[in-house]
Amino acid sequence: MLSLFDGWRRRFGRLIDALLRPLRRLGLLLPVEPDQWLDGRFEHQHRSVDYKLFVPGRGAGRPRPLLLMLHGCTQDPEDFATGTQMNRLAAELGFLVLYPTQTQKHNAGKCWNWFLPQHQQAGRGEPALLAALTQAVMREHGADPARVYVAGLSAGGSMADILGRVHPELFAAVGVHSGLPGGAADNLVSAMGAMKNGPGKSTANGPVFPMRPTIVFHGDADETVHPRNGEQVAADAVAGLLAGGEHPPAHEMRGRSEGGRAFTRWTYADTRGGIAVEHWLLHGTGHAWAGGSADGSFTDPAGPDASAEMLRFFLSHPRLR
Question: Are residues 66 and 132 in the same domain?
């Protein structure tokens, strides 16, 4: 019976596929294919980087949004994907998700080197490597160039903020979880100071970058990266997006996640009335990804779900051509 069924499936499956193919070409039917979890290696400027890539079955054959996810210190792509549960949400929304790997060869703690000047500029160091990797994956998998985003945790969040500042032509919006603002440090000593006490001075007093829409999450009980850093990431984004104009008043909302975690959320509208910056302060949360899975490191399952909120924010901010 099994062989007869298999024969029927092969024969009529080909027929059904042939009948549906014109609908797919016209964009009237989204193809459904298996999700993929791929390994890759990329080389740029005499440096290589390994990565994992989640390719959803949903939306195959169409340009899809792409999210660059940057893990925190001591983590790797497998751990980060498990903890954030980003792939599960990406499968539902048809997102490509790219997870590059930082190694102990380039940083003893497997941290992205956000605190060194050579890794804070376009065309050099890790920003150049990560931007080139993103562009290579875009070409290979047909990503939508108007919907390319970057997010990260801790050191990864700091590097995400840098990438949004120095590559606004590539990334449409930025997500920073428990990270520091670009320019908060220029060596290891100043990095430790900024992590403990917050930025020494407003990074907005430096060069004004053409900032991208930004969503920020930070726990007010974070003893690894002071929550003043999250405040500054949001303040810089507001200043950069509205350079030369009056800053809009923040809209404040207090809430509680399904898991019982209290939070305060501030939103800032742009000149057209759309939400350009969101700042979530998570009450009682330490250095952890909000709403993540306990199967990964540095997560707070009590929520709110930072991954879902980031994807919601990103999809509302395609890059204007």
Answer: yes
For position 10, what pLDDT does the model report? Answer: 44
321, part of any domain: no
* 97 found inside a domain: yes
Sign of torsion over alpha carbons 67, 72, 76, 78? negative
Structural domain range at position 11: 1-30
pLDDT tens digits for range 138-176: 999 999 999 999 999 999 999 999 999 999 999 999 999
Residue 202 structure tokens: 């407003």
Nearest to 231 by CA among 271, 204, 210, 262: 204
Same-domain check for residues 47 and 144: yes
Are 75 and 141 contained in the same domain?
yes
Average pLDDT score over residue span 282-289: 98
Residues 6+ apart with CB under 8 A from 126: 112, 113, 119, 159
Residue 227 pLDDT exceeds 90: yes
The pair of structure tokens assigned to 271 is: 């000149």
- 64 and 3 assigned to the same domain: no
Residue 166 belongs to some domain of the structure: yes
Residues in the chain: 321
| Interhelix angle 306-315/86-93, nearest 10 degrees | 30
- What is d(CA 143, CA 293) in angstroms, rounded to the nearest whole number? 28
What mean pLDDT comes out for the span 245-259? 85
Please state the domain count of the chain: 2
Task: Say if 296 falls within a structural domain.
Answer: yes
DSSP string, 219-287: ETT-SSS-THHHHHHHHHHHHHHTTTSPPPPPEEEEEE-TTS-EEEEEEEE-TTS-EEEEEEEETT--S
d(CA 241, CA 79): 33
CATH number at residue 282: 3.40.50.1820
Q: What is the DSSP letter of 302?
A: T
Say which residues have a Cβ less than 8 Å from residue 230's Cβ, sequence separation at least 6: 176, 178, 179, 216, 217, 218, 279, 281
